Amino acid sequence: MLETIYEEYNRYIYHLCLKLTRNTVEAEDLMQEVWVKVVRYESYVESVDHIKAWLTTITMNTFRDRYRKNVRRSKYMMHQPEALDVPVLDLVANNELTTEEKVEQDVISAIVQTKVNELDTIYKKTLWYFYVDQYSLAEISNLMKVSIGTVKSRLFRAKARLKEILLSDHGIAETIMPA
What we know:
Elements: H1 2-21, H2 24-40, H3 51-78, H4 99-116, H5 121-132, H6 137-144, H7 148-168, H8 170-176
Helix pairs in contact: 1-2, 1-3, 2-3, 5-7, 6-7
């Protein structure tokens, strides 16, 4: 069972890892971690409906965990005694969000999710498949039984309509895009 999944999704996972890390060595390390987790959770495979979405989630979570670990490690390193002439690590920007930024991000996310629900079902499904399930255009085309061109058009129209809905609500427009 796992061999079949590996053969089918190995290239996809590698390309996703490469897209996330932008480095072949790190992508290979991340991919190895992902497959270790897949083997560890082999008992869940039977109950998974969408293997590709499940593998994508594992990959994204593994990447986030590694990123957080690296951020924590760099914070620890910044508090080391200054043995260098120039405290180089002080020049590295800390990419961790402040509490205010996290709250703002959560608020915006909730607003967008609410407004996505106002879209026609066909647009909502297309956005969901593309951005949440991370299906390719070809996969969405097969799922929805339409051409790839139609999927592209629906994605374009869904994003345009969502933008229109967001901007028509002046309170939300100011929250999302302050002047």
